[in-house]
Every structure is written in C-alpha cells, then in structure tokens.
Amino acid sequence: MKKVKLLALTTCLLPSLSFAHNIMLNQPVPSVSVTQYGEIFYVDNAFQYSKWNTEQLKGKVRVLQVIAGRSSAKAMNADLMSAITLEKFPETKYQTTTIINQDDSIWGTGGFVKSSAEESKKEFSWSSMVLDENGTVAKAWDLKEENSTIIVQNQQGNVLFVQEGKLSPNKIKQVIELIHNQF
Range of 176's domain? Predict the structure, then answer.
C-alpha cells in the first residue's frame, strides 16, 4: 500500500518537476515572434523598436542569451559575455543576440528593465537586443523563470549548444571554441 501511495504522489509531482526547455541540438530554435517592443535600435540619438522573429537569426553564428528581466539573471552569464567581447569575433560573421524577458521581472521594475536594455544597446551597438514585454520567447521555448539561457547557433540557425543557468569556466571555454570552429 505504501508503494502505491508513493507512486501516486510521485506521478502527481512529475509535471511540476519538469523544467526542461524544448530546444533541440542540430535543429533551429522553435519559431517565435516578439511584437510587444521587439528588437531595439538606437538611431539619431533615439531608441526605436521593431518586431522581431527567429527567422532573423540565420546568416551569422550567434550566441543567444535569453534572460529574465532581473539583474541576477543578467549577471549569471556575464563572464561568458565578457569572454565573447574579448574575442572580437568578426561582426560580419558573428553576433550576440540578447532577449530580455520583461515579463519575468520584479514587480514594478518594468521601466527600469526597459531603460537598462536600451543602455545596453547603446553600449554594445553591434549586438542585437530584443525586449520581450510578454515573455513570448521564454514561454515558447519552455525556459525556467528567473534564469539565463545560453544558446549557440551556426549560420544556418541550427543549435550547437544550449544550457540554462550559469555556465562553468569549462563551459565558457567550450562555447568560445565552438564559435571559433564555425569560421
């Protein structure tokens, strides 16, 4: 009887314990569009927003950084972003795309998240920045909340690496080598 109760309890808990993303290696990321805000552009000293979708990811080797609109999520993989900046990958062949999930921010900080995203775009003008007001990307890809996800794609848009959470120094090295191997 105890085994039956334990089995029933385990079965009930399984759906709440599964936090796996639905991103598959050697496949493109699941298709999704961001229509609320979208990609940030800084033109003539003003910020502009344009609808964004995953079709725009093809053509360059990319690191996608999908982060919750929280400073802790941004800091989680800051070491990787610093390592990428130091590498000075050719802009014609490589681009970082940061997707910020504004829906996954601390209540009342949405305006701060937006202004922080805009300042990051100003500082890293060569990077692609996407502000996702409704968390469309995180929902479509089944990503964990309050987190950072790193995805490496080849020029065809196929996923070569994916990890949710903080990357170890060895994983950072692996990502850098993976990018180099694409050129």
Answer: 20-180
